[in-house]
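Reminder: ligand-aware prediction takes two inputs, not one.
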Amino acid sequence: MYEFRKSFCFFFLLDSVNYYHSRKGWRTKKKNRRIFQMNKKVLGMLACTAVAASMAVGVSAEGDLITIGYAQVGHESDWRTANTKNYEDVFSEENGYELSLIDCDNDNAKQLEAVRNFITQGMDYIVIAPIQSAGWDTVLQEAQDAGIPVIIADREIEADASMYDAWVGTAPYDEGVTAGNWLAEQLDGAEAKILQIEGSVGASAAIGRTDGFAEVMAEHSEWELLDSQSGDFTQDGGQAVMESFIKTYEGQFNVVVCQNDNEAYGAMDAMDAAGITYGVGGDVILISYDATHDGLQYTLDGKINLDVECNPIQAETVKGVIEQMEAGEDFEATTLITDEAFCAPGIESEFATTMTEEILAGRAY
Ligand code: GYE
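Here is what comes back for the chain with beta-D-fucofuranose:
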């Protein structure tokens, strides 16, 4: 059973549920927003191009392709590539959608600009995978003023739930707790000297994993976090941070936690180059997050001890919410995509499934 526990967006998400359950239906709200748009047009408050775009929205909602603007984080990881492909597959013309996916290259300013362009273009729906969790109020207000529903996907934001319409994503805090619980179970009271390679600074996926793991760490006085630095969710970043960790802490650490698979690949390269062994039977316990295909291959091979899953296949769920909105039905204001965790063969755990060839064969991304 999923629990948000200390997740910072808990109250916002809860608010969101209440907010929408107090309303009759989506269609009324959408319609009201469109009337507001028309008034703005009559008053000449919008540029001619924006007027044309808004009118086109009205037509498309009545039967043509539904336009979706997706402000994607970037292309930093295999997880992200799988997520992008999933949106392209699901929001296809065949399925009745015209998807405009902008790769924001992990640049917050670029992402705000992408959302503003979607507003100007009069998209039917805007989906945002927020690079940073903070700083969204102004642009969300602009989307609301334009009458465009916004779905926050993948990550969480620090904004009141009344500022957006729905959320679909995963629970990084719980993933961090899983990693910590698994480590405690495996070490069974033994000492841990831990190095952590965090994800991108300010991203909820990094904040949540860090906080969840820290929560378990606080219960273990025999554990010490030697250092924790951002590897920006990339392989190059993971390698660079690990190389610098090795310079400072060589011979002093026995656990490395990487907040995604690509960082883990970089850390593995750095440890290989330094002759440090990791994985089952190695000097270092290696923990990763995401559980993409290659990450699970390394887990099956015993190179990664634990890989905590984070599922990038979310577009079908987002589409389901949009369909409910289109039909004027009550829609899910918050949907959690559930995850599990996988450990290497030879390891039994209460918190993770032991990897097999069958599990790997079933992993499409
Ligand atoms: O773990 C990482 C990606 O937001 C959950 O972003 C996502 C994270 C994922 O770059 O690989």
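The domain at 172-311+341-361 is CATH 3.40.50.2300 (Rossmann fold). Residues 26-42 form the longest helix (17 residues). We will return to this case in the review session.
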